[in-house]
Design goal:
With 601 residues, this protein is of the alpha+beta class. Helix content is 28%, strand content 22%. It is built from 16 helices and 31 strands. Strands 12, 13, 14, 15, 16, 17, 25, 26, 29, 30 and 31 form an eleven-stranded mixed beta sheet that branches. Strands 1, 4, 5, 6, 7, 8, 9, 10 and 11 form a nine-stranded mixed beta sheet that branches. The protein is globular, with a radius of gyration of 24 Å. The relative contact order is 0.12. The N terminus is likely disordered. It binds guanosine-5'-triphosphate, sulfopyruvate and manganese (II) ion. Sulfopyruvate binds next to helix 7 and helix 8.
Length: 601
């Protein structure tokens, strides 16, 4: 590739997964001409390349070496303190018309936006290396799998993408040399990591993403929220499949009967923990396995919904993770892990609020400042994260590579609600379930910048991730339902009900197995249910509480429906639908009226 100026950086023959596809070469040439890097590095995802990039990152303080005896082959990255989470206010969907982006997305006009971004990218990589990352999302032999190329000037992005995606030759091979093949163009540049020049822009019609001014997580690992969800949801609608913010887990009974469940919870609301659940002792012989912890791509086969996890690793919330709450996560992050914004101990180990063991007397906080238990600041940032390969997970499902995916028996929607929403309830049918998902709400968390703890509607946990008009998205869900002969049963859950003193009323984590068991029973048609205006409720008699120390009054409280609270909730549903300005399908408006009518029966 001598005709690409400047020189291609291929030390010792590594970094050479170079496609011959003309459309990719033209695009790299164009971006290189614009950004003016010193070198171009074609990433191949190999072990050698990884070692080389880690070495360089250590030299440049992009990574900090950890105590290799305590956490082998693991490193700490400290992001810029102004850059610690997704930025929804600077995230744009750039469709030709504002209507296509819909009422829930920030829209900006594609032509103007390209011009603005080109202005920002001009010369942005001078004196730096431009990395080209070829990757695929999805198992190599899945019909759903997508090819992406990400250009970035951040080594941290390359190192994380290697964990989060299947990277290198596998992508180049899958792309082939058809210049018209479908592939995603992702361009990322750190610029000067200035929040005023931070934009995450999606061009669904062009299958393109441009992200500038950030170096953190979902803003820059373009495979994840940008491709697998925002662009993914757009492609899914036009191509007749679904791209959802859902974990996928397998649950096997002692008799060996297995079901798969997909669950949509908003950011930092428990997906990774639920996906890695270890059943309590009482559930002897039950086993939960992880297919995915954040994103599900689903297609219809023989009238049934099948799901694949497009990712190859986990980008998970660190604080609160310990051997009691999530042993599988603890084992997964014990080695070969990149930590972002956790605390560093005096002996080179990582630490965070809620980690097992003795409280620390001293550490360096996520910014690198001295920290003691008296410090006002948290030692680890509330949105500190681990990046770890899914292969590290002891509970990885054996069918995670299966191209056709796993058959989904149940879909669960859940948010963080301190009141109103019961521990679990079941929709009467698919369309009612779509209504349940469309009207779900959750308290905001540290996963995105902005206020934390405010209840907001977050339909299907996709509010920040739906790449087109939310009304069309609701209709897509209804249309999918019409094509299913054996649709998954749909449930709502809430692990986060609080008592008057602000304490959680439900133990959560592994104990959520008790709820999952009822969900499986309902799918098999064996579990009892109490009919209520909002759906089937779990009666205290059908909830297995053996070996759980819980006050029975509290159980009744979290399982029940308070009519006054729900009158308010239904008013909020109406307000939300009204706020969308007429895009909500009639069927969902009717569903709301039906719930209201059932309360009057
Ligand atoms: P994203 O990676 O942002 O999409 O988050 P997530 O949905 O995967 O959430 P995760 O499982 O990482 O949990 C987020 C926070 O919620 C952590 O601090 C957990 O400790 C906490 N959490 C998870 N499950 C439960 C639960 O069942 N009960 C309670 N009380 N807290 C939980
Ligand atoms: C989320 O916010 O849902 C995440 C973390 O999974 S990030 O990749 O930063 O979006
Ligand atoms: Mn997520």
């Amino acid at each position: 590739m001598k005709n690409i100026a400047p020189a291609i950086f291929s030390p010792n023959g590594i970094g050479d997964a170079m496609p011959q596809n003309q459309s990719v070469l033209d695009w790299v040439r164009e971006i290189a001409a614009l950004t003016q890097p010193e070198n171009i590095f074609w990433c191949d995802g190999s072990e050698r390349e990884n070692e080389f990039l880690i070495e360089e990152s250590l030299k440049q303080n992009v990574l900090i070496e950890l105590n290799q005896k305590k956490v082998p082959r693991s490193y700490l990255h400290r992001s810029n303190p102004n850059d610690v989470a997704r930025v929804e206010q600077f995230t744009f969907v750039c469709t030709p018309t504002k209507e296509e982006a819909g009422p829930t997305n920030n829209w900006s006009e594609p032509k103007e936006t390209y011009a603005k971004l080109r202005g920002l990218l001009k010369g942005a990589m001078r004196g730096r290396t431009l990395f080209v990352i070829p990757y695929i999302m999805g198992p190599p032999d899945s019909p759903l799998t997508k090819v992406g190329f990400e250009i970035t000037d951040s080594k941290y992005v390359v190192l994380n993408m290697r964990i989060m995606t299947r990277m290198g030759e596998v992508a180049v091979k899958r792309l082939g040399d058809d210049p018209n093949a479908e592939w995603n163009r992702g361009v990322h540049s750190l610029l000067d990591v200035n929040p005023e020049r931070r934009f995450i822009c999606h061009f669904p019609q062009d299958n393109a993403i441009i992200s500038v001014g950030s170096g953190y997580g979902g803003n820059v690992l373009l495979s994840k929220k940008c491709l697998a969800l925002r662009i993914g949801s757009y492609l899914a609608r036009t191509q007749g499949w679904m791209a959802e913010h859902m974990l996928i887990l397998g649950v096997e009974s002692p008799e060996g009967k297995k079901h798969y469940v997909a669950a949509a919870f908003p950011s930092a609301c428990g997906k990774t923990n639920f996906a890695m659940l270890i059943p309590p002792k009482h559930f002897k012989g039950w086993k939960v396995t992880t297919v995915g912890d954040d994103i599900a791509w689903m297609q219809i086969r023989d009238g049934q919904l099948y799901a694949v996890n497009p990712e190859n690793g986990y980008f998970g919330v660190v604080p609160g993770t310990n051997y009691k709450s999530n042993p599988n996560a603890m084992k997964s992050i014990a080695h070969d892990t990149i930590y972002t914004n956790v605390a560093l101990t005096d002996d080179g180990d990582v630490w965070w609020e809620g980690k097992d063991g003795k409280p620390l007397a001293h550490a360096f906080d996520w910014r690198g400042n001295d920290w003691t238990p008296d410090s006002k600041e948290k030692a680890a940032h509330p949105n500190s994260r681990f990046t770890t390969p899914m292969r590290n997970n002891p509970a990885l499902d054996p069918d995670v590579e299966k191209g056709e995916g796993v058959p989904i028996s149940a879909i669960i929607f859940g948010g963080r609600r301190s009141d109103t929403v019961p521990l679990v309830y079941q929709a009467f049918d698919w369309n009612h379930g779509v209504y349940l998902g469309a009207t779900m709400a959750s308290e905001t968390t540290a996963a995105a910048t902005g206020a934390v703890g405010q209840v907001r509607r977050d339909p299907m946990a996709m509010l920040p991730f739906c790449g087109y008009n939310i009304g069309d998205y609701f209709q897509h869900w209804l249309d999918i339902g019409k094509r299913l002969t054996d649709p998954p049963r749909i449930f709502g859950v809430n692990w986060f009900r609080k008592g008057v003193k602000g304490q959680f009323l439900w133990r959560g984590f592994g104990e959520n197995m008790r709820v999952l068991k009822w969900i499986i029973d309902r799918c098999e048609g064996t579990g009892g249910g109490l009919k209520s205006p909002i759906g089937w409720l779990l009666s205290p008699h059908d909830l297995d509480l053996a070996e759980l120390d819980i006050d029975h009054k509290c159980v009744a409280e979290i399982l029940g429906v308070d009519h006054e609270e729900w009158a308010k909730e239904l008013a909020e549903h109406k307000k939300f639908f009204d706020s969308l300005g007429g895009v909500v399908p009639d069927e969902l408006l009717k569903q709301r009226e039906r719930v209201a009518a059932r309360f009057k029966e």
